[in-house]
Amino acid sequence: MNVLVTGGCGFIGSNFVRSVLRQKSNCRLINLDKLTYAGNPENLRDIEDDSRYRFVKGDITDAALVEQIFTEEKIDTVVHFAAESHVDRSIAGPAEFIQTNIVGTFTLLEAARKSWLQDGTGLADKRFLHVSTDEVYGSLGATGYFTEETSYDPRSPYSASKASSDHLVQAYYHTYGLPVLITNCSNNYGPYHFPEKLIPLIINNALNDKQLPVYGDGKQVRDWLYVEDHCAAVLRVLEKGTLGQTYNIGGNNEKQNIEIVTTVCNLLDEKVGLRDSGEPRTSLIRYVTDRPGHDRRYAIDATKIKDELGWTPAVTFEEGIRKTVDWYLDNPDWVAGVLDGSYQDYYERMYGNR
Ligand SMILES: NC(=O)c1ccc[n+]([C@@H]2O[C@H](COP(=O)([O-])OP(=O)(O)OC[C@H]3O[C@@H](n4cnc5c(N)ncnc54)[C@H](O)[C@@H]3O)[C@@H](O)[C@H]2O)c1
Question: What is the rounded distance in angstroms from the CA atom of residue 189 to the CA atom of residue 227?
C-alpha cells in the first residue's frame, strides 16, 4: 500500500501513522499536513526517520501539490484526517472550516478520481477513507443512539462542514464509483491531544492551579473513545469495510462533561497530591456561559462495525483516562512546547526550508 495520510501531525492522525507503521511492514505512508496551529510534527519524532515514512508540508486544498503526490508516490489509499476540528474556533471564524473541511476534501476526491480512473490500473486495490465525526447527526435527548441511518442535522459550522464533506464523499461513490469508506466517530481522548480540547485542557489547568472552565451546567453527554481504539477501527474499516458504506465508531462510554472533569481532578490529586492550598483540584471548577448551540448529548450505536467487521474498543474509560493522565505527566516538555508555542519551530529545526 502507498498511503496518503492527511493531517498526520494532528492528534488522531499522528497516533494512526505510528500504529500503522508498527503493525504493517508492507506499506509506505506519505503524511500531507499544512501544520496549522493543531499540527505538530514533533508528535511523530520517534518515527520520522523510518524509511517507509515521508512528511510533506502542504495544504490539502492545493490541487497541484495533491496531484503531484498521487503521481509521484503512486498513491492507492487515502486516509483523510486533515480538518479544522475545534467547534469553538468554528463559531469564532468559520471560513477556514469551509475551506479545509469542504474544499480540501473535494480537492482530494478530485485528485483520486483523476488519478485512479485514468491510470489504467483499475479501482480494485484503491481505497479512500474519510474520517468524520458523530457531530454530523446533531443532538440527542436523554435516550436513543446515532446509527448509520440517523439523518444528518449538523448544528455548528464545524459539524456542518464535516457533514458537507461526508456528502461529497458519498457523491463520488455514487457518481464516479470511487471506492470510498466513511467513519463517523465519537469524542477521542489520549496522548498528543492539543490542550484546547476538554481533557488535556483540564489536565494542564489543574496541574498549574488554574481555573477549570465548564460550559453551562456541565451535564452535556459525550461518548468517549481512547484514540488507539479509534485508530484500530479506522484500519479495520480500511481493510475490511464494504465500499460506499458508513461505519459509526464509539466507545460505549457515555459521560457528562462534569464527570470527566471530576475524574481528571481526582486522578491528579491521587498521582501528584492535593493543591498547594491543601484543597482537592475539583475546587478549581468554574461554571461558565454555555457555548452557543451546544449539543446536549451524543451517543453512538456501534453495532454495525462490531457485527460486520468484528471491531470493539479494547480500552475501558478507566484504563484510558489513567493512561492519558500518565502520558501528560510523563511528557512535560511536549506540553510546555505546545503551551509556549515553541512547537511551531520544530519543523524548521528538523527540516529546514524544505
Ligand atoms: N478529535 C476527535 O475527538 C474527533 C472525533 C471524531 C472525528 N474526528 C475527525 O478526525 C480528524 C482528525 O481530528 P484531530 O482531532 O486529530 O484533529 P487535529 O485538529 O488535532 O488535527 C488536524 C490536522 O490537520 C492538519 N490540517 C488542518 N488543515 C489542513 C489543510 N488545509 N491541509 C493539510 N493539513 C491540514 C493540521 O495541521 C493538523 O495536523 C478530523 O477530520 C476530525 O473531524 C475527530
Answer: 6
So what's the pLDDT on residue 353?
56
Average pLDDT on 64-83 reads 98
State how beta strands 212-215 and 187-189 pair: unpaired
Closest CA to 235 of 21, 11, 10: 21
Domain tally for the chain? 1
Among 5, 11, 65, the mutation site with the greatest number of ligand 1 atoms within 8 A of its Cβ is 11
Q: Does residue 135 have an active-site annotation?
A: yes
Question: Is 343 known to be catalytic?
Answer: no
Cβ contact 40:90 at 8 Å? no
pLDDT per residue as tens digits for the range 122-133: 899 999 999 999
Distance 211 CA to ligand 1 centre (A): 27
Tell me, rounded to whole angstroms, the distance of Cα 5 from its chain centroid.
12
Q: Per DSSP, what are the bridge partners of residue 129?
A: 79, 181
Residue 162 belongs to a domain with what CATH number? 3.40.50.720
DSSP state string for 229-274: HHHHHHHHHHHHPPTT-EEEE--S-EEEHHHHHHHHHHHHHHHH-S
